[in-house]
Design goal:
This protein has 486 residues and is of the alpha/beta class. It folds into two domains: 289 residues, nicotinate phosphoribosyltransferase, CATH 3.20.140.10; 169 residues, Aldolase class I (TIM Barrel, Alpha-Beta Barrel). It is 40% helix and 20% strand. It is built from 17 helices and 21 strands. The chain has a seven-stranded antiparallel sheet. A six-stranded parallel sheet has the order 7-6-11-10-9-8. A hairpin with a 7-residue loop joins strand 16 and strand 17. The N and C termini lie far apart (53 Å). The relative contact order is 0.14. The structure holds adenosine-5'-triphosphate, 1-O-pyrophosphono-5-O-phosphono-alpha-D-ribofuranose (PRP) and nicotinic acid. Adenosine-5'-triphosphate binds next to helix 12 and helix 13. Nicotinic acid binds next to loops.
């Protein structure tokens, strides 16, 4: 049977539905629960990550309804009784969601999104939220790392052909723009998000004319702004001379904006190309480079004095090639008990890094009042008063002897309310505002955290109370397990 693909509500792991069913049958589906989403390690060896994906997540949550086709499918494919299907039919999203906003910085082991509400609903949305946030945050982070090494050079996003399918290309392009790219080659992303579209031409154009000069001439006769791809046959002997010849012939009829090189030793070739262009009087014509570039090759090329003005980047950005998964998780941190009281929950593991931090939290971004620069993040219980304190004792949660007392600081809450009991209360900013916020956020970090190779570890600390509560709960659970063993 064919079912209409008319909702994302079944874009979830089957086990979420089975847990929902259990909660519903056992009468706890409406208990208040708090889940938090965080990742354990920063990707790419980075000193920071850029949060992205909220707009898509909001759209998903706003449309969270089981449609007739969803219910028909579940009826046919699962043993769920009609009563549960009726419950799903009537389900409306009523959770409160707090989240980092897009373009803000996020770090390892701190909540970047928090979902509070009826247990069954908050459980259901785990998979899709992780799917969205994991990917977009990863690509925005990669983009911001590339931005960090290019300075003000224009960055063109070229990834669609190499992306993991169509929606990854679209959302990846948006994330890349947030992280600091200037344009995309994906015309649909331009249409949907207003991202500037830009591009050159492919080798096919030159191959179609079987000659650099003929191809560039044909292109220039019908296009005003031209960037010629000069490496199809021989960059220095044929491509660049042909581009120069056409540009001279066409004169003011075109704007000879650039040449693109896509192979060979980019440092050597770009220097020679620059020389040829300058000698012909085209000192303003830019050199665009593409070919499996990322922040590491770009940094290296800059070190070699490559004369590249504009960077075209595809595969390694859109696929997050060297760290293809962020690994963000979604953990239950607090739940209402039989008496209606909220109690902390923890997940223990023999792997210390996988032990979750219990309790509903807020993340405070601590900056020095005098210069706005980062001091670290301070995670506290939601009810703790942080902003009004005169001084803050910050210590490393695993190595408490690494500590400092901060004075004259500003504390900004990172998690903002997006949905209040199911109602969207957050006004989504424009994409350009998000991008500007990201650039400003990265700028607020010390260079020690933004350098791409072996950055300093940004402090992500727990409040004393949160740390004490975590230790108490670990002890409590261990004693309970021991008792059960006897
Ligand atoms: N001077 C350089 N220093 C460091 N890396 C470079 C330099 N020049 C090019 N690269 C990078 O080295 C890699 C070269 O890849 P590869 O050998 O596949 O390219 P190619 O053979 O020139 O072109 P094609 O992709 O058409 O095969 C690319 O990732 C490119 O960006
Ligand atoms: O290298 P990326 O960062 O992924 O950038 C996108 C690539 O897409 C195009 O190549 P094309 O698909 O024509 O194949 P090519 O690699 O053989 O040039 C373009 O010439 C770039 O090389
Ligand atoms: O416009 C370009 O030059 C372009 C677009 C997509 C992929 N590679 C290059």
């Amino acid at each position: 049977m064919d079912y209409a693909d008319d909702s994302l509500v079944l874009h979830t792991d089957f086990y979420e539905l089975n847990m929902m069913y259990t909660y519903w049958q056992q009468g706890i589906s409406e208990r208040n629960a708090v889940f938090e989403c965080y990742f354990r390690d920063l990707p790419f060896g980075s000193g920071f990550a850029v949060f992205a994906g909220l707009e898509h997540a909001v759209d998903y949550l706003q449309h969270l309804r089981f449609t007739d086709s969803d219910l028909a499918y579940l009826k046919e494919s699962t043993p769920y009784p009609q009563g549960f299907l009726d419950y799903l039919r009537d389900l409306k999203f009523t959770c409160t969601v707090r989240s980092a906003v897009e373009g803000d910085l996020v770090f390892n082991n701190e909540p970047m999104m928090q979902v509070e509400g009826p247990l069954a609903q908050a459980q259901l949305v785990e998979t899709a939220l992780l799917n969205i946030l994991n990917y977009q945050t990863l690509v925005a982070t990669k983009a911001a790392r590339i931005r960090a090494v290019v300075g003000d050079d224009p960055l063109m996003e070229f990834g669609t052909r190499r992306a993991q399918e169509t929606s990854a290309a679209i959302w990846g392009t948006r994330a890349a723009y947030i992280g600091g790219f200037n344009s995309t080659s994906n015309v649909r992303a331009g249409k949907l998000f207003g991202i500037p579209i830009a591009g050159t031409h492919a080798h096919a154009l030159v191959q179609a004319y079987r000659d650099d000069y003929e191809a560039f001439k044909a292109y220039a006769e019908v296009n005003h702004d031209v960037t010629f791809l000069v490496d199809t046959y021989d960059t220095l002997r044929s491509g660049v001379p042909a581009a120069i010849k056409v540009a001279k012939e066409m004169g003011d009829k075109i704007d000879f904006q650039g040449v693109r090189i896509d192979s060979g030793d980019m440092a050597y070739i770009s220097k020679r190309v620059r020389q040829q262009l300058d000698e012909a009087g085209f000192t303003q014509t830019k050199i665009v480079a593409s070919n499996d570039l990322d922040e590491n090759t770009i940094q290296n090329l800059k070190m070699q004095g490559a004369k590249i003005d504009i960077w075209g980047i595809g595969t390694k950005l859109i696929t997050a090639y060297d760290h293809p998964a962020l690994g963000a998780v979604y953990k239950l941190v607090s739940i209402e008990d039989e008496s209606g009281k909220m109690v902390d929950t923890i997940k223990l593991s023999s792997n210390a890094e996988k032990v979750s931090t219990p309790g509903k939290k807020q993340v405070w971004r601590i900056t020095r009042r005098s210069n706005g620069k980062s001091e670290g993040d301070f995670i506290a219980r939601d009810e703790e008063e942080v902003a009004g304190q005169d001084e803050l004792y910050m210590f490393h949660p695993s190595y408490p002897y690494i500590n400092k007392t901060v004075k004259d600081f500003n504390a900004r809450p990172v998690l903002q309310t997006i949905f209040d009991h199911g109602e969207l209360v957050y006004q989504l900013p424009t994409l350009d505002a998000i991008r500007a916020f990201c650039l400003q956020s990265v700028d607020s970090l010390w260079d020690e955290y933004t350098r791409v190779l072996n950055p300093q570890e940004y402090p992500v600390d727990l409040s004393q109370q949160l740390w004490d509560d975590k230790m108490d709960l670990i002890k409590h659970v261990k004693v309970k397990v021991q008792k059960q063993q006897l």
